[in-house]
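Re: that backbone. Tokens:
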């Protein structure tokens, strides 16, 4: 618990915090494994290794997001901080979009590989293709699970991080502390 937090600051519970930071860490891992895969020769052992890890992290993000939404239904999060109405609405929309994205993007990733009739990989376990070879679907997924999706997700997360820092350090309303078990520097 933070010592600098004002008395009565309503925080997210430790489980909600764990889900939040695990998903954030895995998203970073997904982008890193993607860069490492692209720098390996296509079809090489290194390529397959990084792609396998990418798929495993992605499936984990999907499972964790499901669990996170389920958990929030039974242990409701604290009310959003007092702020202008547009800002509260933007925060609510961003949180819904972030959770929706971490559910839908892995499904598109699965469909990107499954539409080539290749099984996905979850830490060495094959996840069979349920759709078989579908060139048109593969083409669509190269867009929905391709560079446009990456730009969308990085922008959304970037805005979310900027908003969190703005709350914490400009509005000084201790927003970041609500998602941390300790006080961040400068709080
Ligand atoms: C939130 C989760 C995920 C994120 C953020 C993510 C992100 C990305 C990104 C940025 C790319 C590169 C796109 C491009 O520039 O063409 C990519 C490629 C890919 N992803 Fe994901 N991904 C996720 C989950 C998954 C999952 C769950 C699977 C499969 C089960 C998967 C399979 C793939 C495949 C097959 C590629 C193409 C690799 C290639 O070019 O050979 N992804 N992903
Ligand atoms: C350095 C990165 C990040 C920072 C600093 C950050 C910060 C925060 C903070 C401070 C809150 C609490 C807002 C409040 O006071 O009500 C929050 C909530 C939330 N964040 Fe992040 N966040 C980061 C990354 C992410 C990522 C990558 C996602 C992607 C899924 C995400 C999704 C959410 C969601 C859905 C909520 C609403 C609460 C919940 O459902 O757990 N955040 N974030």
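Recovered sequence:
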């Amino acid at each position: 618990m933070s010592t600098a937090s004002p008395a009565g600051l309503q925080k997210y519970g430790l489980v909600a915090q764990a889900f939040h930071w695990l998903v954030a860490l895995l998203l970073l891992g997904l982008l890193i494994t993607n860069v490492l895969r692209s720098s390996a020769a296509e079809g090489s052992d290194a390529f397959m290794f990084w792609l396998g890890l990418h798929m495993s992290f992605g499936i984990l993000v999907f499972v964790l997001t499901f669990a996170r939404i389920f958990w929030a239904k039974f242990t409701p999060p604290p009310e959003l901080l007092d702020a202008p109405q547009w800002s509260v609405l933007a925060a609510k929309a961003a949180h819904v979009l972030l959770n929706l994205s971490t559910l839908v993007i892995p499904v598109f990733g699965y469909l990107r590989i499954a539409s080539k009739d290749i099984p996905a990989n979850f830490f060495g376990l094959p996840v069979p293709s349920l759709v078989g070879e579908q060139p048109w679907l593969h083409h669509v997924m190269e867009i929905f699970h391709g560079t446009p999706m990456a730009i969308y997700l990085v922008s959304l997360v970037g805005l979310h991080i900027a908003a969190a820092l703005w709350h914490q350090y400009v509005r000084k309303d201790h927003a970041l502390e609500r998602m941390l078990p300790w006080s961040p520097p400068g709080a």
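The chain has one domain: 14-179. The pocket of protoporphyrin IX containing FE (ligand 2) is lined by residues 16, 20, 23-24, 27, 72, 77, 80-81, 95, 98-99, 102, 157, 160-161, 164, 175-176, 178-179 (CB under 6 Å).
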